[in-house]
Amino acid sequence: MSSVKPKILEHDVVSLDVPMEAFPAGTIGTVVLVHSDEWVLVEVSDERGETIDELFEARSDQLTIVS
């Protein structure tokens, strides 16, 4: 049985499933721009949930929605 991930939307809080650029898997951030069904721009959050002015692009299949 395959599971389908929900579509990622702007303002979703996501977790990175794989290392990306300088960020390890598990990094939390907020989607600030959806380029397409495949690519999004994520603003990184620190351990308190506050943004730290770091951005990265990721494919939607590399992210999991956490809230």
What does this structure look like?
With 67 residues, this protein is mainly β. The chain has a single domain (13-65), classed as SH3 type barrels, CATH 2.30.30. The protein has no helices and five strands. It has strands at 13-16, 28-34, 39-45, 51-59, 63-65. The protein has a five-stranded antiparallel β-sheet with strand order 4-3-2-1-5, with no helix packed on it. 15% of the residues are buried.
Top CATH class: Mainly Beta
Structural class: mainly beta
User: Average pLDDT, to the nearest integer?
Assistant: 89
Shape: globular
Strand content: 35-45%
CATH topology, by name, is SH3 type barrels
- Could you state the order of secondary-structure elements as H and E? EEEEE
Low-confidence sequence ranges: none
Helix content: under 10%
Organism: Conexibacter woesei (strain DSM 14684 / CCUG 47730 / CIP 108061 / JCM 11494 / NBRC 100937 / ID131577)
Protein name: DUF4926 domain-containing protein
